[in-house]
Amino acid sequence: MPRAFRICAVLFLALGAAPAVAQDTPAPFESDAAIKADLLRELNALADAGKTRTAADLLATRPASPPAVTLPAPATVALDGERLYRRLREGTVILGGRYKCKKCTHWHLNTASGFLISTDGVVVTNRHVLATGDLEAMAVMDGEGKVHAVLELLAQDETHDVALIRIAGKGLRPLPLAVKAPAPGAEVAVLSHPNNRYWMYTTGHISRVAEWADSKTPDIRFPVLCITAAFAPGSSGAPVTDRAGNVLGIATRIQPVQQAKSDDGHKPEKEGEAKPPAGEYTAMVIPMAVPVRWVKEAIDAGKKPDER
Length: 308
What we know:
The protein is of the alpha+beta class and 308 residues long. It has two domains: 32-167, Beta Barrel (Thrombin, subunit H), CATH 2.40.10; 187-300, Thrombin, subunit H. Helices cover 19% and strands 33% of the residues. The chain has six helices and twelve strands. The protein has helices at 3-17, 32-48, 55-59, 81-91, 127-130, 293-300, and strands at 92-100, 107-116, 122-125, 137-141, 147-157, 162-167, 187-192, 200-213, 221-227, 239-241, 247-260, 280-291. Strands 1-2-3-6-5-4 form a six-stranded antiparallel barrel. A hairpin with a 5-residue loop joins β4 (137-141) and β5 (147-157). The longest helix is centred in the N-terminal third of the chain and has 17 residues, at 32-48. The chain is globular and about 55 Å long. The protein starts with a helix and ends in an 8-residue tail after the last helix.
């Protein structure tokens, strides 16, 4: 037997005799392209079957009575990061709307975020999600990849940017709403879909509770939660929760703080500007969330005091 072969044989036997080393099971990864393709395919099938509604049709709805929503009880046990991610995934959804561009005849997909608040398919999102573009049909993908048609608009609050919709689904895993308003320093988590990056989990704290006024209604001012957990366009409607998974607010907007390149001092940002003008840069971005109290008020609107 050649010497090199004998050495290889000895090494093979030695390695074969060594105890097997357990290998970690690789974590599942997200394929953004596959998720988006699956949602669009299922949405198209629902639309072809006449089971969807346009966003404009939904927004034109004026419900005759307050929505009947059975909310889950608040959670009381704080979870570690992995368990909290899994819990949020059960109750968070991808909201998809299809549209056509002017360059081709294919359907395209616009996606945002939302979360379940009842087992029978009541979903919370931002109202501006429904008002974005000309969405011809809408559907929701849950954390298991199942796609559900959007059936109706239950309530909307343009001032606070809240919308409640119902999807076709039963036995779902909703997220509970927080009972107590949070204070600066409280830990938060967000599960959202920033710019087609699906199921992204971020954490941080409430950095402050600030006064906000929408440009359309400048005289109406209300508190918003400023947080350090990152999100971006596509995250609108996502749940901002505490460590137990109770929803504290809805991810709604990001506000850039702009700084003059030639100025070391403070330069106020220009609200509503998509990018800084020449000579300025974005020093930081402040993610902002609408407090969950406005969801509760949307549910209670129109109810008698003894029914709330």
